[in-house]
Amino acid sequence: MALNKKPVNGMKDIMPEEMQIRDYVMGVIRETYGKFGFTPIETPCMENIGNLSSKQGGENEKLIFKILKRGAQLDLETASTEADVVDFGMRYDLTVPLVRYYANHANELPSPFKALQMGNVWRADRPQKGRYRQFMQCDIDILGEESNLAEIELILATTTTLGNLGFKDFEIRINDRRILKAMAAYSGFGEEDYDNIFITLDKMDKIGIEGVERELTEAGYDSGNVDRYLALFKEMNASGDTLAFIEEKMTGFLDEAVKAGFREIIESVNATKGDCFKLVFDPTLVRGMSYYTGTIFEIAMPELGASCGGGGRYDKMVGRFTGKDVPACGFSIGFERIILILMESGFKVPNQSKKVAYLIEKGVSGEALCAIIAEAQKERQSGAQVLVARMNKNKKFQKEQLTAEGYDEFRQFYKENLKN
What we know:
Blueprint: H1 16-35, E1 39-40, E2 46-48, H2 49-52, E3 66-68, E4 86-90, H3 95-105, E5 113-122, E6 134-143, H4 149-164, E7 170-176, H5 177-186, H6 194-201, H7 204-218, H8 223-239, H9 242-249, H10 256-272, E8 277-281, E9 295-301, E10 306-313, H11 317-322, E11 328-333, H12 335-344, E12 355-360, H13 366-381, E13 385-390, H14 395-404, E14 409-413, H15 415-419
Parallel strand pairs: 1-5, 7-8, 12-13, 12-14
Antiparallel strand pairs: 2-4, 3-4, 5-6, 6-11, 7-9, 9-10, 10-11
Helix pairs in contact: 1-4, 4-10, 7-8, 8-9
């Protein structure tokens, strides 16, 4: 029986053209974030299953690829619970591994610590366009900075990176989990209901305010509370200044320091940003992770019609490992979706060096071959990228393929010419 040549469902082989774009994008990301003082780190692809199942990863915890114990530790005959057979899991994001990393190495790291992580993560999700079971994430995080400087730096670093990749006219949507909680409290909901209410609110862009009302009512919430809650969104849309409306309406429910800090983030970013994006206050923005404690943000790309990254503040996560809370905030770029947009738009990697293909006819050997390779080596030393390959029978198709890979100069060496 022949082996299966196709990749596992939800994962993919990456062809050379896409790999070039991915390498280029990763290079731009590293260079740009480096200018903002972020330090590259790396964490293992596996984590202890207890870390991944700590009820901080939201819906992603349902999508963990779990790993069986190995060797004598795995006893299927006596196993009665999942814990008897599973001890590790593939990471589903980069935040939980980062927090474990920081908790383990805090005494060796500067404070605040500005981390850059790029790596694959795994989710047992339903594959679809732009969504895979193995995919690259790109995160920047600041740990140990309690002020709004963390949010400001993260937003500016991320938007500068997207601008350097050629994106423009996108939005950074921003909200705060404390604003969400204040609005729910103002409406009369109990704190135990917040998570479920926010899950429904997060669907407003898909089901509309009528759909949100229907779901909350069908869930059994008091109709008076639901009416008061949804009236907030209707009134703020009509107000012309949603932030000022919320600041006034939430008096007594939202700490004044939270109001001032949130406005400071918006004003500071708007005062220093370029013209490639807009910063938009969105009171319906929720973000799915339950570990967020304050500011949250999301990238909205017009080319995609969907989110292309996001993040927020998660001040309570480190304390789960150490018993002592550390302020933390992060922003993740939707790497795979960015690659998808670039591929579909026909993006070509800018030529950073001359690319030359030496095509040598079969039969060229000995001193003639050595001379050709020596010439290629000289060109490489001068900064060119030189491919040395044997000439195919179908030279036209071979050159077309190499042209698609960015080779713009061809030098062809024939046996008969070299004899002369």
